[in-house]
Design goal:
Length: 330
């Protein structure tokens, strides 16, 4: 292990020893992919009787006043677990005493997260047939969590999101005809406001841990906010998250009718397909602007980062998706 990894292992051992009331050793400490703003680590704590426990550590990589704190992220994940939503159980939230940073530790949930394997491997074939319905049920349970019981969630209603993403787009200096068309459509077709509910914010294929029996955990709660719950259902249907399975709009594995049916069995509220369609257009537009800014940031920050450049070129894909959404083909 590198010196910094050895130091982190020592601090984790001290933390777990205090919480467990016995001496703990940290083994197999490995950094996983965590994005630009987060670090994700996997580690094990062996037991003197054999076996042991496996954990995931999520840490903030940067100190910022923007975005959700890891304490709030842990709170909403715990609230989701209490609402019978499949999540990794949060075991400990870090404090300044731990000298590790802002973050939390959760139990490791084994399973598959890679979308192409979920969509193609034979062991998941039966699960895929029920996955859209299950996603609808889990989304309804997320949206039923009482927002008054959680502090620190930002309100991101439709007007806020339109304003935010249009400002980013205008500030880029780029002008793309399809993006302009989509923005005009969004302004002219925005739905009537609804009472804000808890929205996951990144509810899609790639943020699910699955096994042959179904979804074992829903990941990445860092974008959770208060808003229109149909945003989650629509984001799951954005073409970029179908991974080539265009004929299966729900994550590349199912149909909207099954997603809506699963949602309605839990919520008791009929889905308005037009409202979901609006948010699918909005989600596709947002992703297109995000991709555009990936390539722009490379040009401004110096040396080319291949991953960001590859994502940046996907703006053209979202333009095609937007045209098809706006002409009623998807």
């Amino acid at each position: 292990m590198s010196p910094s990894t050895v130091e982190l292992a020592k601090k984790l051992a001290t933390l777990l020893s205090r919480h467990k009331g016995q001496r703990c050793e940290i083994t197999q400490l490995v950094a996983l992919s965590g994005g630009a703003n987060n670090q994700t680590w996997r580690f094990s704590v062996p037991s003197s009787t054999g076996g042991g426990d496996n954990y995931i550590l999520r840490l903030s990589s940067v100190q910022t006043d923007q975005g959700m704190t890891k304490e709030v992220e842990a709170d909403i994940q715990r609230a989701a677990g209490a609402a019978h939503i499949p999540v990794a159980p949060v075991t400990w939230v870090l404090t300044p005493q731990d000298s590790i940073g802002s973050g939390y530790i959760m139990s490791l949930v084994e399973g598959e997260t890679i979308p192409r394997k979920i969509l193609r491997d034979e062991q998941y074939a039966q699960m895929r047939n029920q996955m859209a319905f299950s996603c609808g049920q889990h989304a309804a349970r997320i949206h039923a969590i009482d927002p008054l019981k959680l502090a620190g969630l930002e309100l991101m209603d439709v007007d806020t999101q339109i304003s935010q993403y249009e400002e980013v787009y205008r500030g880029s200096g780029m002008r793309l005809p399809v993006i302009e068309l989509a923005l005009r459509w969004i302004h002219n077709n925005r739905p009537t406001p609804v009472p804000p509910q808890i929205v996951h914010g990144d509810y899609r294929n790639g943020n699910f841990i699955v096994g042959p029996e179904g979804i074992r955990a829903i990941l990445d709660w860092e974008l959770a906010h208060l808003g229109d719950p149909m945003e989650d259902l629509a984001w799951l249907c954005v073409n970029s998250w179908r991974y080539g399975n265009w004929d299966k709009p729900v994550g590349g594995f199912g149909q909207r009718e099954d997603l809506f049916s699963g949602y309605e069995t839990i919520s008791g509220t009929p889905i308005d397909p037009c409202r979901v369609h609006f948010w699918e257009v909005m989600g596709t537009l947002k992703w297109g602007i995000m991709c555009m800014m990936m390539s722009a940031s490379d040009e401004q920050s110096g040396p080319l980062a291949v991953e960001r450049a590859v994502i940046g070129r996907r703006t053209s894909e979202t333009e095609l998706d937007l045209l098809e959404l706006l002409t009623g083909d998807r």
